[in-house]
Structure of Glycosyltransferase family 2 protein:
Amino acid sequence: MSLRASVLVPPAAATSRGLLSSLDRQSLSADEFEVLIGDDERDPDLTSRLEDLVAHRTNLARVPVPAGSDVASTLLDRASGEYVLALPPGRALTPNALAELCDRADATGAGICLGLTGRAGIRPAALPDSPERLAGPAAGLRRRASANAEQIAADLAGADAATEGAAALPTTLCFVDGPAPDRRTPIETDRSVRARSTRVAWSDGVLEVDVKLTEPSDDVRASLYSDRTGIEWPLPEIQVDGSSFTLRIDPASVPVVGLLPEGTWWPSLRIGGRAAILVRARSGKAHGASVRERTVVSFARGKRLGIDVGGLTQQPVRNLDPEATTVVEDSRGSLLTSRLTNLDLAPGKRLTGELRLGTMPVVAWVEHRDGAEPVLQAWVSGLAGESPLFTRFGPAPFAPTGARLIIDGVGTMTVASIPQPADTTAPSSPATSPAPGKERRGVGRRLRALRG
């Protein structure tokens, strides 16, 4: 199997435990990349240690660099990966860095993908407007066939890896210094101002989010942030009207990256150059989806607006309104039809999935009907009783819809909401709970009666 990448390490970084540990933790399989460590052989102890490392790591090699030889040329000549990544002293890689940079280079055909300097999971103080404004990339992943010794030497020295013409190439904002963040949800780092969504609506593949700030500002920048990879993509400039503005998110056309990668992304804002904040959202209003070439679902988690590209964890259909749902019987059976809101379905698109009646799944589909809003339909049946309804139209688990199918004794079917559980935490009323003193006196009388 051909190697995807060769990681080049100069002699000055050969003793870095942090760098070697970060290479051991890469999500990219060890048989898909090699680590070439230069050794100028001036320190016998270092040579001995590198030989010991080679004996315990199948993808690591010690590369002797004779006196007077050029380190960059020697390492580059030895490299056999499709891409080369030169790491200067003081650097380390987050676990997903190699895989993310290689995938981005594969998908875009870029000659170089840059990693942005910054602590892992911590976004830069100021998000750049465009790739040419990136400063101090930690490392440049280059196509080996087009890389030269001068470029590799600059990378090994920690110099700016951007070359003439690189501004037009896709650039990966990948944080490569330090360990990966150990959290599953992003943290709002600026609590001095709040951003609350007042409308979340899908139309023609674009998500429009109306946002209200707790204070007016004419300097608002937007981005999409992945807490899994630490990657952040800038969104186009937005028009701000005092404390209100509209954010437009097109998952098929994000500046620099183009097609937004699959996974969960969090819309975030930087106001007046301060730290990033997330967009607040209510669960009921945040949910919606666009079904085009890919399924993209908007949702709320922890009162924050998120976007699931690919529908990997969120279902596109998870709310059925009983008032907009009917069950019509004819000679073919009972057809359930439910009108859906905030579901952007491509013209002519038919999405097939499942509707689960309690534990019994049946085939369901979503499509346009008579040019109106999309509808969910399924042929349903069953015995008398009630069955909660669940949907699945993608890889994510079945999602509850908040509705139930009711079949009476004569077979008539209706759809109703699932009643909310009663609040058992509320204190009892004074009429049913005697006062503490009166209760103690009653207990005392009963004990005296038992003693005779």
